[in-house]
Predict the 3D structure of the following.
Amino acid sequence: MAILEVKNVGKRFGGLQALGDVNLSVAENSVHAIIGPNGAGKSTLLNCLVGKLIPDTGSVMFDGQSVLGRKPYEINQMGISRVFQTPEIFGDLTVLENMLIPCFAKRDGAFRMHAIEGIDNEKDILGKAEHMLEEMKLIDKREMNAASMSRGDKRRLEIAMCLAQDPRLLLLDEPTAGMARADTNNTIDLLKQIKEERDITIAIIEHDMHVVFSLAERITVLAQGTPLVEDTPDNIKGHPKVREAYLGETQDAA
Amino acid sequence: MLGLNKKDFGLLIIVAILTMAAPFILNPFPEGSAMAQFNAGYPDLMQRLVIFGIFAIGFNILFGLTGYLSFGHAAFLGVGSYAAIWMMKLLTMNVIPAIVVSIVIAGLFALLVGWISLRRSGIYFSILTLAFAQMSYALAYSVLTPITGGETGLQPKYTDPRILDGALEAGQSPRANLFGLDMRASSELVMGNWVFTFNAGYYIAAIVMLIAFYMSIRIFRSPFGMMLRAVKSNQQRMNYTGLNSKPYTLAAFVISGMYAGLAGGLLVAMDTQVGAERMFWTASGEVVLMTILGGAGTLIGPVLGAGLIKYMENIVSKINKGVLEQWFAFMPDGIEDLLVTMIYPFVGKGWHLTLGIIFMLVVIFLPGGLVEGGQRIGRLFGRKKPSDSSPDGSKTPAE
Amino acid sequence: MDAIILQILNGLDKGSAYALIALGLTLIFGTLGVVNFAHGALFMIGAFCAVTFSKFLTLSHTVIDENKTDFLGNPAKIEVPYIYDLFGQATGDAIIDWAVPLSLIVSIPVMVGIGFIMERGLIKHFYKRPHADQILVTFGLAIVLQEVIKYYYGANPIPTPAPDAFRGSFDFGAMMGFDPNTIIYPYWRLVYFAFAAVIIGAVFAFLQFTTFGMVVRAGMADRETVGLLGINIDKRFTIMFGIAAAVAGLAGVMYAPINSPNYHMGMDFLVLSFVVVVVGGMGSLPGAVLAGFLLGILESFASMAVVLELIPGINQVIIYLVAIIILLTRPRGLMGRKGVMEE
């Protein structure tokens, strides 16, 4: 069953047709990768899914409900969490506080005026946050300023923050961009582990073919704002259209 | 204790002791001595110290936590003052209704201004708040004269209706009171050459300040306070974490507006008068200075900053040439003249110059304000374990 | 009709001042990315350049005039400006009379120098700091500058008249063929407007037609790319700061006869100029100029008796009201560029 259904989505910026006529369906509990050369419209598509952009045409349904016209925080509360290309975390806050915020957001919703009771008294939330940090092996950094962590740790923290909300769909925007090989492999293992342990759908936009073919169950290739093919990784590897779109890019990656 | 952890409770107790003992602490020099002008233990000044402390504490909840720099907070102080004086004119000279209404009215006004201004951020937000404050000021001076008294301002008169109080006789001036306790009632304690003044108004204002300070600690330590810091840190992540940042910032704006209204109401409770200049943008600038000077985002910083600026305003501005000459009289004439000439521009009427220089130095070298300075000095001498990093940097009271 | 023309004319001089200050603010913001709260102080310092120059010209020494006696019968002491000794009385008087326009010559190097010192000594260190810090430190600087001026010149406004030739008013209405005596306009204000137009034109021409200006405009659009081209953009930006300071200063010099300079005139203008910049669109030079004149003229229209009868007090708040409406409906201002000061 499809948890995310994108139908006939188009988006135009002035004279540039960023997305042509995108149809995409992501099956529940699958790992779906969206690949394509630079300027293929991957980021535009992603931004349409999370409410940052509103497409000119078409519909985006998540779990039977339309996400169009909703604000990013509303879409997040529906169960879509997003991991950014460069880790977006609360740099001025401690690692533990970074973890607490999504826990509060999950329990209390988009806004709650809990200005009197101290955080120290929220035992449940504290327990959950610390448990997540332990799971992500970040617990000994709990009092550290999040901005002063290494990039790999920031990425782990960001993923942990997204998972703390128990999302049904996790969107990753080039999660290994700019990472060293070792960090990339760690991230792949982490995502595999997440997939095994949870009922979660993962949609991933990625450049690195190594990551894509290690994780994805289905792959959509996007070129010039329209989906070229959608298939299993094995079939995609040898697909002539894909090779053409990438101008040989896939050869050294695969 | 009181829902605070040990360290915060300790901080609250220290502030409480300092404010309660202020008549002693601020009067360290015997009457008639050369240093007597550094005494600040007179009611009028002490009241201002704590009231502007409240103003700065509230401003800090907005600026220190969310990072939204409002250049128009004096408008809320002014609106609170006008609301308070009208309560005194119409209802009673008892300060309770005046103060309560000043908080409510300022809060409502802040809700309106915040609702509009918070549609923008960064410098646009600063300019919007500035525009609202300047508009309020201009209107209070001109068209709204029937409500604000225009240039002359407002004062309670014996002819006012004051439905809850008994009528006053002609010429009798109404006195602000708390259930009969006159705000201006003072008792003096003479100990040798020292004279200490205990003023009812000061103690009431100080108690209100302590409550306000206590509330701000609770807000800082609450999930709400953490969300406000999240707004400052990364709004994008906040929105993609399912949190609507706008009501959080608006709530912070309204709370800080209510603090400003409370300060305005208290000012009226102390001196029963108000003028539009209270809303001028320099007054808004002053609370920014106080908060930054003390340390934005820290608990105690704004109180320290407010205290220091109001102290300087009253004390440094009183030093004139004669006083300087008296101080340096023991030196040879040439050096005396030189010193007097060198220092004179910075004291007396020139105290704003000193303020401006100190403020610049703080922004350049100590962005964390006096609190950061205190921490650095503490680290220099203490060499103790690095304090367990509390998130807002309010590690030491920096006293 | 004549009433409308009168109000437009009345708005022009204030609008010119707004436009000139806003132009400098925008130059600094657009090139250096710094929000300069001390810009009003530069305007004020310019005005005090005029004051100082006039005082300097009238520096005098005492001579004893044997031909005249004072009321005690002693020979009278009279003050003779040094300038008489140099040029003779007639020329000396003319020079003193023309002090304000002449001080333009002196104030250009002075203002450029102050601009350089400010940028190299202070602003430079704030490029990488948050806008809030920039606002705060320049706000502190503005306080310091105006207090220094207050210390040396006192708190009272110092009348600084325009040359005799421009002191009067003229009947603009009669000139234009309307009824006489309906549009009376002081000469100096017209001079001020013309002066502002020349300065604005010069700045735009400079940016448009010189290589230097081209690089600066490119830098305003995309600082990093220009930096990559190997052009020393920082040095050019320092010069740009000097020019912006000079523009503000010259605006101040010429404004001295319209409003006797006092130490807080800079702040009064700054608050409004910021509103002007925001209305025009942060980072847009034409926007700053347009909004400056627009708001100046709107303000004078709002001061008309007819309007005031309709909406009392509107003249006090019109600029702020317009700013609020514009900011809410056009977040980037009238001509703002995308991506400037947006989080």
